[in-house]
C-alpha cells in the first residue's frame, strides 16, 4: 500500500479571487515542503470540474490545487495546520475516491503570534511578561 500514489483536489476559498489565489499559493508552498508531494494549480477544466462537483452554493471565489503524494496522512496534517492559522481560511479536499473533507480555520493570526511569543503560555494582555507559561 505504501507504493500507492494518492491524488486530491484542494479547493481554497477566499473573499475575492486575489485573496483565494494568495492563500492557495501559501498552501501550495507549504505542501511542497513534504517529501514526495507534488502540488500544482489545476487547469481551467479541472477547476470547472471541481466547482461542478459541489455546485455553486458558495459565493466566494476559489482556486483549485492538485496534490499528488505517496501518503495523504502527512498532507492532511499539513493542510489542517495551515488552515488553523486563520479563521478566514477554508478548504475543501476532494479525494480521488470521491470523499470530501472540508476544513475551516479556528484561530486568528494574532492568537498564533501570541502563542509563539509566549511559547504556549497565556498572558493577561498583549504586553504580558514572564518567560514560562503554565499549560
Protein model, in words:
The protein is of the alpha+beta class and 135 residues long. The protein has one domain: Alpha-Beta Plaits (2-Layer Sandwich), CATH 3.30.70. Helix content is 36%, strand content 23%. It has a five-stranded antiparallel β-sheet, sandwiched between helices. The radius of gyration is 17 Å and the shape is globular. The C terminus is likely disordered.
Key terms:
single chain; five-stranded antiparallel β-sheet; 135 residues; 5 strands; Alpha-Beta Plaits; alpha+beta; 4 helices; globular; disordered C terminus
Task: Please specify the SSE layout and strand pairing.
Layout: E1 6-13, H1 17-32, E2 38-41, H2 44-54, E3 62-69, H3 72-83, E4 90-95, E5 100-104, H4 109-118
Antiparallel strand pairs: 1-3, 1-4, 2-3, 4-5
Amino acid at each position: 500500500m505504501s507504493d500507492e500514489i494518492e491524488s486530491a483536489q484542494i479547493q481554497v476559498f477566499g473573499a475575492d479571487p486575489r485573496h483565494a489565489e494568495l492563500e492557495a499559493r501559501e498552501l501550495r508552498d507549504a505542501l511542497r515542503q513534504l517529501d514526495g508531494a507534488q502540488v500544482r494549480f489545476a487547469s481551467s477544466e479541472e477547476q470547472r470540474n471541481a466547482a461542478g462537483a459541489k455546485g455553486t452554493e458558495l459565493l466566494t471565489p476559489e482556486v483549485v490545487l492538485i496534490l499528488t503524494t505517496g501518503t495523504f496522512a502527512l498532507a492532511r496534517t499539513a493542510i489542517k495546520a495551515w488552515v488553523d492559522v486563520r479563521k478566514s481560511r477554508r478548504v475543501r479536499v476532494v479525494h480521488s475516491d470521491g470523499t470530501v473533507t472540508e476544513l475551516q480555520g479556528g484561530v486568528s493570526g494574532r492568537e498564533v503570534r501570541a502563542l509563539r511569543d509566549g511559547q504556549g503560555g497565556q498572558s493577561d494582555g498583549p504586553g504580558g511578561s514572564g518567560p514560562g507559561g503554565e499549560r
